[in-house]
User: Fold this.
Amino acid sequence: MAKGSRERVVPYSATIGELLRAYLAHRRTLAQTRGLLFLSESPRNFAQPITLWTWSKVVRQLALQANLPQFSAHTFRHLCLTDLARSGWELHQIAQFAGHRNPATTLLYIHLSGQDLAEQLTPGMSHIHAWRVQTLAHTFLDRTPTEDVQ
Assistant:
């Protein structure tokens, strides 16, 4: 559940599925309770759910170590929604998947590059270019010699 008690689907790869399976087995050694997924292993708050603040700090530390200072816990969400746009999903589909009531919110998450846009444009432009060449060819081939003199 997310903000506003709206359900969110979190897709993940087979590799992440294996890592999650291993973590769940490890989690059972920390506590048998149900609830939040990630538990602390710190002696101070052993087996207590980690907070969003703690998770953000962990991701921030990893980002700095990887020399990616702008990377945050929320970056994964931006990447996922951008990938959906790249794969051809329509805005209203992405907004529904993301749990956004307003598609304008979704637009804040989608970051297409110039190359992404060029790849979308190329097939349509090839068709338009072919049509222009054909139209111009017919225009000039259908002229009579006297029209050329004028």
